[in-house]
Amino acid sequence: MTILLTLFQIFLVLLLAPLSLGLVRKFKAFFQGRVGASIWLPYVCFATLLKKEMTISPVISFVFRLSPFLVLGTTVLLVCVLPLVSTVTIFASLSNFMMVAGVLAMGSLYLVLGALDAGGGFGGIGATREMTVSALSEVVIITVFASFAVAGNNAQISEMLSLGGSAIFSHPFLILSLIGLTLVALAENARYPVDNPATHLELTMVHEANILEYSGPYLAMMEYAATVKLTIFSLLIANFVYPVVLVQFTLLGALGIVFLTIIKLVVVMFFLALLESLMAKMRFYRLQEYFSLAFLIAVLGFFLTILYP
User: 178, 241 in Cβ contact below 8 A?
Assistant: First the structure.
């Protein structure tokens, strides 16, 4: 049964990942007074990239070719470990928040190594910015999940979901931790105000500058990994607020969870699009203020959770 639940979670999250990107683009177009592209367009774009020929510089090493597989592999590992659809999976025991933070850091490291190996100027700029964002966000992630670990007396994220929903009112200070998690999720997924995911100006890019030298299937893997990562954070935040997941595989239960997962993505993408429509991108040299705010909120939630368990 756990094997079936694990496969179901992996299949569902990987299948719905492009839909989350299509939804946030559609909602942003709505707030901007445009019709916008179809929510299914990301599926077509990924399929098109997979069929295109790759253009690779002759000076690159195996690192450049290996990076897309490693970046995508780390996101798939997070899908296997985190309680996104079910808390009863084979890898649920590996959902220790320190390990999850380490996997996130590894994904950023592999992305940076691929960008540096290409030898391009923009890749170097993007790599520097990516490592800066990663270094500032990791401590916030650890602090946020440490609050849930203290409140639930368990370091596994799969067990922390019991603190969500109505149970969170017994630990009201965890709301601060959720706010901190939301702020760091925007940074980890290169969204406003940390980065502009739709920019075409290389000098302002963070994530996009790292994948500028990729094309064809490699670019599809990098873009798809970023989309899966966005879906992971969206479902994780939604599950902390409304923790309804599958614990026993039945046909009716699976259909209900599929519907509920889509609803969660629609709601989260709506608020993400609304948030991005109300703010502008921050200057890179002011990001320390953003992360300082996220860290202070997370630390405040952590200490209040300790003082008032």
Answer: yes
Structural domain of 196: 2-307
Structure token pair of residue 48: 């098109």
Contact 304, 176 (CB under 8 A): yes
**CA 129 to CA 119: how far, in whole Å?**
16
Number of domains present in the structure of the chain = 1
Report yes or no: 131 and 112 within 8 Å, Cβ to Cβ: yes
Which 3-state string (H, E, C) describes 200-259?
A: CCHHHCCHHHHCCCCCHHHHHHHHHHHHHHHHHHHHHHHHHHCCCCECCCCHHHHHHHHH
Q: Which residues, other chains included, contact 159 with Cβ-Cβ below 8 Å and sequence gap of 6+? A: 87, 152
Q: State the pTM of this model.
A: 0.95
Q: What is the pLDDT of residues 176-207, one digit of tens each?
A: 999 999 999 999 998 989 988 877 666 667 88
Rounded Cα gap, residues 80 and 206, in angstroms: 27
Alpha carbon distances (Å) from 15 to 200, 206, 288, 299: 27, 26, 35, 35
Which residues in 17-55 are b (16+ Cβ under 10 Å) and which e? bbbbbbbbbbbbeeeeeeebeebeebbebbeebeeeeee
Of 295, 299, 227, 304, nearest to 19 by C-alpha is 227
**CA dist., res. 292 & res. 45, Å (int):** 37
Per-residue model confidence as pLDDT tens digits over 238-270: 999 988 777 777 888 889 999 999 999 999 999
